[in-house]
Amino acid sequence: MQKLLEVIDLKTYFYAGDKIIKAVDGASFEVRRGETFGIVGESGCGKSQTCRSVLKLIRNPGKITGGRILYEGRDVVPLSNRQMRKIRGKEISAIFQEPMTSLNPIMKIRDQIYEGFKGKNMTGEQKEERAVELLRMVGIPSPKQRLNDYPHQFSGGMRQRIMIAIALGSNPKLLIADEPTTALDVTIQNQIMVLINDLKDKMGMSVILVTHDLGVIAQMCERVAVMYAGKIVEMTDTVTLFAKPRHPYTYGLMRSLPAGGGNAEKLYTIEGTIPNLAELPAGCAFAPRCQFAAEKCRRQEPKPEEAEKGHWVSCHCLNRTCGLKGLIPVLK
Amino acid sequence: MEAGKKIVEVRNLCTEFPIKKEFSDILARRPEKSVKAVNDVSFDVYEGESLGLVGESGCGKSTLAKTIVRLCEAKAGTIKINGRDITNLQGKNLRAVRKSMQMIFQDPYSSLNPRMTVYETIAEILKVHKIVSVHEIPDKVNEILAMCGLNKEMAERYPGEFSGGQRQRVGIARALAAGPSVILADEPVSALDVSIQAQIINLLKKLQKELHLTMIFISHDLHVVRYISQRTAAMYLGKIVEIGSTEVLFTDPLHPYTGILIHASPKIDPTQRERSPAIQGEVPSPIDLPKGCLFHPRCPRCMEKCKNKIPEMKEIKEGHLIACHLYE
Amino acid sequence: MRKKKSSHKKVTFIVGSVIVGLVVLMAVFPRIFTKYNPIDVDVMASLSPPSLKHLFGTDNYGRDIFSRVVYGARIDLMMGVLGTVVPFFIGGIAGMLAAYYSGWFDRILIGLIDIMMAFPFTILVIVIISILGNGIINVYIALWLVGWMSYAKLVRGEVLVLKNSDYIQAARVAGFSDGRILLRHLLPNVVSAAVVYAVSDIVLCMLTGASMSFLGLGVQPPTAEWGAIMNEGKSYISYAWWITVLPGLIMAVTGVGFSLLGDGLTDYLRRKGR
Predict the structure, then answer these.
(1) Could you name the CATH architecture of B1-49+58-91+222-265+281-318?
(2) In chain B, what is the straight-line distance between the N-terminal and C-terminal CA atoms, in Å?
(3) Among the residues of chain A, which ranges form H helices?
(4) Which chain B residues are closer than 8 Å to A268 by Cβ?
(5) CA triplet C168, C169, C171: central angle to 5 degrees?
(6) CB under 8 Å, gap of 24 or more: what pairs does B66-73 form?
(7) Who's near C116: CB < 8 A, 6+ residues apart?
(8) Which residues of A200-230 are buried (b: 16+ CB within 10 A; e: fewer)?
(9) Would you call B95 and C177 a contact, using CB atoms and an 8 Å cutoff?
(10) What are the CA-CA distances from residue C256 to residues A273, C199, C244 (Å)?
């Protein structure tokens, strides 16, 4: 499959006084055409900053300090803001967690959708036709009448649908979805997941999905990257990840889910807390919480290795993690 | 479990929030409207068990908890704790009974007083309710903190210096300080990261077992409820639609809504993808409730009868109650 | 960059403290600043311009203006402080109780405040004094009657937000009495906003008090008070400007001092409150 986006050794740092916070520290991954690529991790692991870097929406005091982001083979890191705007919102669109704050509260839905059509020679009628089509596509009932409504007149789930409609207005090739279902109820989350999966297939676009929820990853993604403390610690296709996790952190995340352990008396826990990005330990950032940690882990930072074909893991203890059991049986 | 003593008995409980009248409403003499947040709810919680309460936002699960601990006024119905009717207690009597029912809140950042140290927060409860004599307070505080996985050095710090998981431990310690017999946990792990969530779930489960606590556990996360609760109740628009043992409810839900809820929660298995949504549409506004069964406009198995008659709660099997016309 | 900002804040705080400190010192120990008695008449020296002998010059009776200013500091500072502290307590308590219990008390209180606040502060004070009659005591009463409303409104707003916060709910669930919740849990969290306002309010009360004396409604001659001194000088302003201008300048500097102190205090409380 063809690569749409390739990120090579991306480094996004934030400067707070004399401290450097390495929000993203050497992330490399690719997104293929027509696939959903998931980035999963806990708060502060750098998953959202990775997306923002791809959109080049990093604000001061943050900066992309290294690496390349190749969109269709062209590096977007050195692009000026104006050049980037041509890509953002046309080739690459984004939806965020809280639909109420990402929609403009004093603008009609109609105008917010029309903004995506800028630069396309369209008559008023064509615009309205397209807007209605978009709203119908994301499942808004009586779309024609609702074009003149304001965001507050919609429920949370409906607002997220409108966000998606706006994002799709320009026929993007890549949709970046940052926690698109986190603020929603289960049944609505379920509807939105099915909707995005559907639209992705219909329009042939690629999706980068950022979430903390392994259930959402399982339901939506073809391939996944697991992030911890600014680094990608494991990356492979979704089925392999859930069947045979190789990084102790991935394993810990799965095992600590109440749904993962069956009726065990006690959930598996990853001891300790998420480290402070400004004061990371030497060596592997996960070592202080890792049950496999050896002396080497505290000294030397592991580099991504291809444990099996297409299964990248950054861990010194690969020989000991091959027997770890995932949440689903290994396919023959 | 069923044979145990009833600790909490709720009967026909209703909580309403009046909607402020507009001036035009007064002119037009429209009747006062209200949101029926809790609508004729009855259930029991037995000693030492954990009852899970699930449902989508706006279903009234939080309001139900707040009504039970008397943070919201009940409009009708009764609440009994340890056999004593507390529905209308006031002043001193209410304060005294409150030590037997405590609450754990969702947001570990807003639920602690930012200007009190952990020690002060817990010692205050011990002092007010005279749980131990004054000179025993420091030891007792340390004991409670240790139970919740916090060490002595943390006692003199302010909440602002803690991480989310540690704050939630403090919140739990505070709830336990008075030695309650019932704990109402309102989404206690929803704001936490996955790895921290597991630590807190284990803590709650351990404490429940060791202290023989009775717990009402509210969560929108069905996996968490399934893991922690022996019995589960599902709520929709202020009503309990089904209540029964967790295992039965999750493997063989009877009420159509419970089934949809379980079906909609994402399976952590990439080989079992959902191709169509579990249910269309959204929960309607709680102001103008539909006639008959509240779920009927969205129910895939709706019958003529459902549109007019409100279904009663009925015991289908031992300990398994359901409000649905399908099972009559 | 952050460091620079905080050191800048520190400087304003120190300047503010020094100014306020000097004024307080004047009020408490006026004798260390001047050897003249503020009401001693010296006709020979009347209307002499500022000099080393008379720093701020003298007035038409030959009284030393500087010593009148120094001795006047006590009354002006008292008006500022008492005019603030009493409303701070009355308004704070009223606002807290109203917001916590809501109901009819709250409705009456907020209605009253809304009506009263529709009038400008100074006008209200003048109206009350003209009803009660001239004199320093009546200036105090007027300041109190008008001043408490700002505190009531401020504290009420804070309490309305906080009383629904989780930790106050938790305190209620814990079975604490209303008194304990109000004093131990709400008060420490709402008081800082009121304190910050109070520091700037001292200036307002001082200026209003002085204005009343300037208008002849407050302190009566020959007592030394800044507004009164300025009033006495106003007929000579064309050839003896110092009688009016120099006390006015001192008053302005004092005002700036309190504002700077207030800024510093705000900053400190915010950092502490986090």
Answers:
(1) 3-Layer(aba) Sandwich (3.40)
(2) 27
(3) 47-54, 81-87, 99-102, 109-114, 124-137, 143-146, 156-168, 186-203, 214-220, 238-243, 248-255, 295-299
(4) 198
(5) 60
(6) B66/C169, B67/B13, B67/B15, B67/B38, B68/B8, B68/B10, B68/B101, B68/B184, B68/B216, B69/B98, B69/B101, B69/B102, B69/B103, B69/B184, B69/C173, B70/B94, B70/B98, B71/C169, B71/C172, B71/C173, B72/B15, B72/B37, B73/B15
(7) C124, C146, C149
(8) beeeebbbbbbbbbbbbbbbbbbbbbbbbbb
(9) yes
(10) 48, 11, 19
CA atoms of B300 and B323, how far apart (whole Å)? 16
Residue A163 φ/ψ, nearest 5 degrees: -55, -45
Which residues from A are below 8 Å from B205, CB to CB? 265-266
CB pairs under 8 A between B and C: 67
Residues 6+ apart with CB under 8 A from B48: B1, B4, B208, B212, B213, B214
Calpha distance C21→A179 (Å, rounded): 56
Task: Classify each residue of C57-74 as buried b or exposed e, where b means 16 or more C-beta atoms within 10 Å of its C-beta.
Answer: bbbeebbbbbbbbbbbbb
**Widest distance between CA atoms in chain B:** 68
Residue C252 half-sphere exposure toward CB, CA atoms < 13 A: 7
Q: How confident is the model at residue C5 (pLDDT cuts 50, 70, 90)?
A: low
Alpha-carbon distance B112 to B187, whole Å?
16
pLDDT, average across residues B64-83: 93
Q: Helices H, strands E: what count in chain A?
A: 12, 12
Q: Which domains does chain C have, with CATH numbers?
A: 30-253 (1.10.3720.10)
Quick one: CA dihedral B308, B312, B316, B322, positive or negative? positive
Nearest to C165 by CA among C144, C189, C141, C143: C189
Verify whether the Cβ–Cβ distance B110 to C185 is below 8 Å.
no
Burial class, A124, CB count within 10 angstroms (exposed 0-12 / middle 13-18 / buried 19+): exposed
Amino acid at the residue A276: N
Report the residue from A218, A257, A269 with minimal CB separation from B223: A257
What is the β-pairing status of strands B320-322 and B314-317?
A: antiparallel
Centroid of chain to Cα C140: 11
The candidate with the shortest Cα–Cα distance to C257, out of C76, C65, C22, C70, is: C22
The Cα–Cα gap between B37 and B239 comes to 9
DSSP string, B275-291: SS-SS-S-PPPSSSPPS
pLDDT of res. A197: 93
| Segment holding A55, helix H or strand E | none
Tally of helices (H runs) and strands (E runs) in chain C? 10, 0
Cα(C139)–Cα(C219) distance, integer angstroms:
9
Query: Tens of pLDDT along A110-157?
Result: 999 888 887 778 888 999 999 998 898 888 888 888 899 998 888 888
Question: Is C273 within 8 Å of B98 when comparing Cβ atoms?
Answer: no
pLDDT digits (tens, 9 = 90+) for B205-260: 999 999 999 999 999 889 999 999 999 999 999 999 999 999 999 999 999 999 99
Q: Tokens 């502290």 identify what position? A: C85
Return all residues near A295 (Cβ < 8 A) that are at least 6 apart.
none
Phi, psi of B183 (to 5 degrees): -115, 130
Integer Cα distance of C227 and A62 in angstroms: 55
* Statement: the pTM of the whole predicted model exceeds 0.90: no
Which of B115, B170, B176 is the best residue to mutate to test the C interface, defined by the most C CB atoms within 10 Å of its own CB? B115
Residue pair B180/B102 in contact (Cβ under 8 Å)? The answer is yes
Residues 6+ apart with CB under 8 A from B191: B106, B107, B108, B109, B164, B168
CB of B56 less than 8 A from some CB of A: yes
Looking at residue C161, the DSSP 8-state letter turns out to be: H
User: d(Cα C65, Cα C80) in Å, to the nearest integer?
Assistant: 21
Rounded Cα gap, residues B118 and B124, in angstroms = 10
Average pLDDT over chain A, rounded to an integer? 89
Strands B6-18 and B76-81: antiparallel
